[in-house]
């Protein structure tokens, strides 16, 4: 079934998926005008509001669209009665954004089912679940020079960062028992895959004790909430998991780590950042395995990086993730591990079985191409927003 031609005002501030999103909108026949602006403060900006209001009042648009959710855009679309479709690849969303969720003009799409369910349970009815997409046509069109292929070829590669958690600073004034208790929570979640237990284990009583400890050092204005502490623990877990896997892989195989920061790792080779559009796909395609440990507080969804790997015809080595297991078969379309030890064992096995590894790359690519395309997702976005 086709869709009507729409006139879209697209807001962007430099998102990874802007080109793929807009090119597929235009390919479907829609008219797109882009407003590019980088917010110094996404919650208050008089200049932006005046300019964006000018666009909304000097032309007629069927919808405003953006990658990720922007509260000022939502506020202006509500004021001028224009539907606002935002499709987010960040998770979890910044807590303060929820203050702008409930305008009836909003259609906010998140890729993590659990996060959507939590917002809906809290009464936010403008939140919807939609997995992310890959532009395989663009990825297939890329041609890499032999020198680039040679520089990207490796046994194991990881593109990302290690995260810098504020957990140590947050627990600085706390007593030894509380620090030990939080460390126990951290170690438990570090070893459990497929179940997110931080929400249950971070109790109000624990938060009260930690907040009381701030007062003992004169920090009377500091108050840590549940979301803040769980995020700090989750990012610390992610840091530990990624660091451990990179170090262990580096000890055993030719392992490349592509990051913008100069992390101090002893065994994995730090290669610096790669461009999303044309360098990253080369890394994914010509690495034998692409390590992709999910940020621990993404509870169920498939992150963009995992789809990009498979869409680039690379082999994905990821932690077990509910929605990844829903759409892809372990050992057939991708490789999923259930512990850090399992990750190393599976890496060792598949590095020794090239035929199996190459077939996984083919199968994963086909699944992504068939089930995670932009045309499919755009139809769902517009159907949900009622602008077909």
Number of strands: 12
Total helical elements: 17
The end-to-end distance, rounded to whole angstroms, is 10 Å
Question: How much β-strand is present in the residues?
Answer: 5-15%
- Element-by-element helix/strand order: EHEHEHEEHEHHEHHHHHEEHEHEHEHHH
Low-confidence stretches: none
| Biggest sheet architecture | 6 strands, parallel
Structural class: alpha/beta
* Helix content range: 40-55%
* Strand order in the sheet with the most strands: 2-1-3-4-5-6
Describe the fold and architecture:
- The protein is of the alpha/beta class and 388 residues long.
- Helices cover 46% and strands 14% of the residues.
- The chain is built from 17 helices and twelve strands.
- The protein has helices at residues 18-27, 46-57, 71-79, 113-121, 136-141, 146-152, 167-170, 176-191, 198-201, 204-216, 226-252, 280-286, 304-311, 322-327, 340-351, 354-371, 374-385; strands at 7-12, 31-36, 63-67, 84-87, 106-110, 127-129, 154-159, 255-258, 269-270, 287-292, 316-319, 335-337.
- The strands form two sheets. Strands 2-1-3-4-5-6 form a six-stranded parallel sheet, with helices on both faces.
- Strand 5 (106-110), helix 4 (113-121) and strand 6 form a beta-alpha-beta unit.
- The mean pLDDT is 95.
């Amino acid at each position: 079934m086709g869709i009507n031609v729409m006139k879209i005002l697209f807001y962007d501030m430099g998102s990874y998926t802007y080109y793929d999103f807009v090119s597929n909108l235009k390919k479907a026949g829609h008219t797109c005008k882009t407003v590019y602006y980088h917010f110094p403060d996404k919650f208050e900006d008089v200049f932006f509001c005046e300019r964006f209001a000018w666009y909304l009042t000097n032309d007629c648009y069927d919808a405003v669209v953006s990658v990720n959710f922007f509260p000022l855009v939502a506020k202006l679309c509500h004021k001028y009665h224009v539907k606002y479709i935002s499709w987010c690849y960040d998770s979890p969303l910044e807590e303060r954004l929820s203050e702008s969720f409930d305008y009836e003009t909003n259609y906010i799409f998140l890729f993590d089912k659990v996060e959507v369910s939590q917002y809906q349970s809290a009464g936010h009815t403008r939140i919807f679940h939609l997995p992310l997409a890959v532009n395989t046509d663009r990825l297939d069109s890329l041609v890499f020079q032999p020198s680039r292929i040679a520089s990207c070829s490796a046994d194991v590669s990881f593109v990302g960062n290690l995260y810098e958690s504020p957990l140590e600073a947050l627990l600085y004034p706390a007593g030894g028992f509380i620090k030990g208790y939080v460390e126990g929570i951290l170690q438990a979640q570090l070893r459990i895959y497929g179940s997110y237990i931080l929400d249950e284990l971070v109790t109000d009583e624990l938060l009260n004790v930690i907040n009381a400890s701030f007062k003992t050092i004169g920090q009377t204005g500091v108050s840590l909430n549940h979301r803040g502490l769980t995020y700090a623990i989750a990012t610390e877990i992610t840091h530990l998991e990624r660091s451990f896997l990179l170090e262990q892989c580096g000890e055993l195989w030719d392992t490349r780590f592509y990051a913008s920061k100069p992390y101090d790792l002893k065994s994995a080779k730090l290669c610096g950042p790669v461009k999303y559009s044309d360098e990253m796909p080369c890394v994914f395609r010509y690495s034998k395995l692409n390590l992709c440990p999910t940020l621990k507080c993404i509870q169920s969804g498939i992150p963009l990086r995992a789809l990009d790997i498979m869409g680039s015809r690379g082999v994905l080595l990821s932690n077990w993730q509910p929605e990844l297991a829903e759409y892809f078969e372990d050992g057939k379309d991708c490789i999923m591990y259930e512990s850090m030890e399992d990750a190393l064992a599976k890496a060792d096995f598949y590095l020794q079985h090239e035929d199996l590894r190459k077939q996984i790359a083919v199968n994963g690519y086909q699944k992504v191409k068939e089930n995670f395309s932009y045309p499919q997702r755009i139809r769902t976005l517009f159907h949900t927003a009622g602008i077909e």
